[in-house]
């Protein structure tokens, strides 16, 4: 806090030369002259010279000091009053104060008050890969092979060839005729696990100065990074995957796999191509999945599904799946055309319970806009749940290391002092009582590390359907 003496000093008692002088009773320090209103004739020693008070007697000097002190105290009181009023709501007096003194004149009084705190971390987005990919355990880093064997499940005595399976017409076996042959087909999928991770070093001094505990959550930060990496990896396996070679030679989403949501794959002209997400489009996507057949041309059952959407479509998806009733003028309701007017008018309308919410679960993938820069905000996906039969994707983890692993470097130094040095139960003799926060012997550095091992691949594209939401 600055003293009022300095306030008065800065108040502006300056001479014409710009130098400040203490004024006492109308005289400035160093002035030559007699004090106004005081006669020296009756006082002895009037010619006595005092330093700073030329030709002034001792008595007069004392009177000058007395009057000067009263003047000084009056200025002190005035400054204190203005400061008090300035900080208690008097804007005019505060303005007068600012005209005389700037903030830079009083760094202790007007200096910034810093409220130091560490902001909380962002709320973690949920991961969704386990809702669309089957998790498996892998024993080591050698290539992983997955095989599928199909065939033998077609209709008995059906007419078919190895080149083109066909449910065809049932052909009874005549008496004495040979039974027709069937065959099996196989396909393989290969991937291998990869190791991912990073480390973060600190110096010992950094932890000593960390009075806000801003660094103590480094392991938790690494854990969040690992979960995000896994979500990003699985998203890359399917997001807008309409080019390249998939498991059967076609892109994962293609008309060859009949898993793009359009009129041809839904089996009806009422279906829009790549429709935007609506309840009608979701029903059409379910039709696309349920129209899929196995390698022998036989139907497969898809009874539980997962709708995957980007954050931009979250509210639409929640509205679709959380509504109780749906009013429909098609897909069970009827429309009629009025003569040459091709616009349909309502004839009958169904008021149906929303059965889709009992079949479809919602997964909001926040990495879709990041991975898919073309349709990441409009595209949406429908997967058969991976726990029900053959999955669309597989995500593998190393056996015994199914979760990300966090490590801290063991200190390679031994403290010397009473009761701290000698054989111990630690990994290194003498270090059983050493804290890892004491740091490395050579540099006092403290190291954190995280390791995560995983891999994955596309398995069966007919267990997923996709619309980029463009309407074309």
Structural class: alpha+beta
Low-confidence stretches: 7-16, 18-50, 92-103
Give the rounded overall mean pLDDT: 76
H-E order: HEEHHHHEEEEHHHHEHEEEEEHEEEEE
Tally of domains: 2
Number of strands: 17
Give the CA-CA distance, first to last residue.
73 Å
Structural summary, described in words:
- Strands 3, 6, 14, 15 and 16 form a 5-stranded mixed sheet that branches.
- The two termini are 73 Å apart.
- The chain is 23% helix and 21% strand.
- α2 crosses α3.
- The longest helix is centred in the first third of the chain and has 29 residues, at 58-86.
- The chain contains 11 helices and 17 strands.
- The chain folds into 2 domains: 4-110, no CATH class; 129-402 and 455-467, no CATH class.
- Residues 7-16, 18-50 and 92-103 have low confidence and may be disordered.
- It has helices at residues 4-9, 58-86, 91-100, 107-110, 129-132, 204-208, 218-238, 263-266, 279-290, 314-322, 368-371, and strands at 23-24, 27-28, 133-138, 144-151, 184-191, 194-203, 305-309, 325-328, 334-338, 341-348, 350-353, 360-364, 380-384, 393-398, 405-408, 445-458, 464-467.
- A hairpin with a 2-residue loop joins β1 (23-24) and β2.
- With 472 residues, it is an alpha+beta fold.
List the helices and strands and how they pair.
Blueprint: H1 4-9, E1 23-24, E2 27-28, H2 58-86, H3 91-100, H4 107-110, H5 129-132, E3 133-138, E4 144-151, E5 184-191, E6 194-203, H6 204-208, H7 218-238, H8 263-266, H9 279-290, E7 305-309, H10 314-322, E8 325-328, E9 334-338, E10 341-348, E11 350-353, E12 360-364, H11 368-371, E13 380-384, E14 393-398, E15 405-408, E16 445-458, E17 464-467
Parallel strand pairs: 3-14, 7-12
Antiparallel strand pairs: 1-2, 4-5, 6-16, 7-13, 8-11, 9-10, 13-17, 14-16, 15-16
Helix pairs in contact: 2-3
């Amino acid at each position: 806090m600055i003293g009022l003496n300095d306030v008065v000093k800065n108040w502006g008692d300056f001479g014409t030369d710009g130098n400040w002088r203490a004024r006492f009773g109308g005289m400035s320090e160093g002035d030559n002259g007699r004090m106004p209103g005081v006669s020296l004739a009756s006082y002895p020693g009037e010619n006595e010279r005092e330093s700073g008070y030329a030709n002034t007697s001792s008595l007069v000097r004392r009177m000058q000091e007395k009057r000067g002190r009263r003047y000084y105290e009056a200025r002190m009181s005035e400054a204190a009053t203005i400061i008090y009023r300035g900080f208690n709501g008097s804007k005019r007096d505060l303005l007068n104060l600012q005209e005389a003194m700037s903030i830079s004149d009083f760094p202790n009084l007007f200096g910034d008050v810093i409220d130091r705190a560490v902001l909380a971390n962002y709320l973690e987005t949920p991961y969704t890969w386990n809702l669309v990919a089957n998790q498996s355990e892998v024993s080591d880093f050698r290539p992983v092979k997955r095989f599928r064997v199909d065939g033998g499940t077609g209709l008995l005595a059906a007419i078919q060839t190895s080149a083109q399976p066909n449910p065809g017409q049932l052909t009874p076996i005549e008496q004495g005729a040979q039974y027709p042959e069937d065959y099996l087909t196989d396909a393989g999928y290969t991937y291998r696990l990869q190791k991912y991770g990073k480390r973060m070093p600190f110096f010992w001094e950094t932890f000593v100065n960390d009075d806000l505990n801003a660094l103590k959550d480094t392991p938790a930060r690494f854990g969040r990074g690992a979960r995000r990496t896994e979500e990003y990896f699985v998203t890359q396996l399917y997001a807008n995957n309409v080019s390249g070679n998939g498991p059967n030679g076609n892109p994962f989403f293609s008309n060859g796999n009949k898993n793009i949501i359009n009129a041809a794959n839904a089996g009806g002209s009422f279906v829009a191509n790549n429709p935007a997400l609506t309840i009608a489009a979701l029903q059409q996507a379910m039709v696309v999945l349920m129209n899929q057949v196995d390698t022998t041309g036989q139907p497969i059952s898809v009874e539980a599904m997962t709708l995957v959407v980007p954050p931009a479509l979250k509210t639409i998806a929640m509205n679709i799946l959380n509504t109780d009733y749906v009013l429909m003028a098609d897909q069970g309701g009827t429309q009629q055309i009025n003569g040459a007017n091709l616009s349909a008018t309502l004839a009958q309308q169904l008021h149906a319970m929303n059965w889709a919410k009992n079949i479809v679960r919602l997964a909001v993938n926040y990495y879709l806009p990041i991975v898919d820069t073309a349709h990441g905000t409009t595209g949406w996906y429908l997967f058969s749940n991976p726990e029900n039969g053959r999955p669309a994707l597989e995500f593998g983890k190393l056996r015994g290391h199914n979760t990300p692993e966090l490590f801290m470097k063991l200190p390679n130094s031994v403290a010397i002092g009473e009761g701290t040095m000698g054989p111990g139960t630690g990994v290194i003799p003498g270090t059983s009582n050493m804290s890892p926060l004491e740091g490395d012997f050579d540099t006092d550095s403290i190291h954190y590390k995280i390791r995560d091992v995983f891999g994955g691949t596309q398995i069966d594209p007919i267990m997923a359907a996709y619309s980029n939401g463009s309407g074309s």
